[in-house]
Specification:
This protein is of the alpha/beta class. The chain contains 16 helices and 21 strands. The strands form four sheets. It has a twelve-stranded mixed β-sheet, with helices on both faces. The chain has a four-stranded mixed β-sheet with strand order 2-1-5-4. The longest helix has 22 residues.
Amino acid sequence: MSITSIVRYVFEPRMRALEKHQTQGELLQRKVLAHLLQSAKYTEYGRQYAFGAMKGYDDFAKHCPVNTYEELKGMIDRMRHGESDVLWKGRVQWYAKSSGTTNDKSKFIPVSPEGLQKIHYAGGFDSVALYLRNNPKSRLFDGRALILGGSHAPNYNLPGSLVGDLSAILIENINPLANLVRVPKKQTALLEDFEVKRERIAREAMTKNVTNISGVPSWMLSVLKCMMEITGKTHLEEVWPNLEVFFHGGVAFTPYRKQYEQLITSPNMHYMETYNASEGFFGLQDDPLDKSMLLMLDYGVFYEFEDLSGDSNIVPLWGVEKDKNYAMLISTSCGLWRYKIGDTIRFTSTNPYKFVITGRTKSFINAFGEELIVDNAEQGLAYACQQTGAEVLEYTAAPVFMDANAKCRHQWLIEFSKPPQDLQRFAQLLDEKLQEVNSDYEAKRFKNITLQPLELIEARKGLFNDWLKLRGKLGGQHKVPRLSNSREHIDQLLSLK
């Protein structure tokens, strides 16, 4: 009998509990809100907005303001200096340094003990529960888990207080028993220098029986390629014959899928998307044949959604509609209240509540009324790659507002792991697909009147990594900005080209 067949029983009660997501979404969310308001009613923020007197969602929406990080950062900084009962009960010792932005100014997201256990670790537990449910023959626990993490540092030198990547906070606080089944060792996992860490992880992991890997696709791919170079192997199953699943999140998997499928040719390999961020753990791919994710409704997260179709109405979960683009707001047991996380999603189902991530509220191009979002970009790149056999490693795009000939266009900077034979054809296919999936972009491209055909520049190998390294953001959970209305990022990259 395998170890997994025994451990599976630990997850079965949760597998049954998750069935409530199918029919009791509104009830689960109302219970979460009631718990959050009750727990925080004696905090400074709770007293300010009379949480103790609130009867339910209508009172909460009426009296509690919508917040961005800017509105909360003063109180968060006081919490970082050791104050208790500010945004959440008690003292919060851990702060996730957000990589949801590539600006020099970082965000520090509180991670309370309750949030750590009942949001972040709960998401990891449910990832395994759903995977085991979908794969009865799994031998997940008969080997090791390779988990990539970032690094952390002392927070204002307060005893026991840390600030850093969320992944590092999770590794630092993980149950010691988990260290028996994971690689690399803790000291390696928390190294700050990613280039040093990458090789050490590869050397530590390549001799282990790894059955599952977890992390951001771009950084995991870098580690795996390093290991292939060290071992001289061609396919990952030559090193880890029992590898069966990659739990991935942080960035869209579409640009990396083909590279993983070439690296891992085993028919027994699975991929499971997770939606976890510094601010919380929000969604899981519960059906391997469905790319949408199940919204996790019974953690310490209460959701609201801002309609981006024009009227900007904010509704609770039970007010959403399918196929609309929403910006997500969260209230959590870490002390974020009606907080605009910056992500946009679209519901594909409301029974149960399932969704796809469509982009970032600040990651789009709308310089000329084209409303181009990351979801459009991913579809366009996937199509162009499919038609040309190319493979994209990293990319970013921004507008050219007006060149020397008074022409406007979008400029794409793409680093290929496998370049197309005809770069111009790739650009044309990308442009055509963007017009197909986005009517606003199509209208602006009509007869080249407003927008000229997009411009594609091929980036040299390693350009994006060099740019991230210069900004101290190599490795961990850091991401390349995909689309921007500003030319700040693309101009910096082009200066290194």
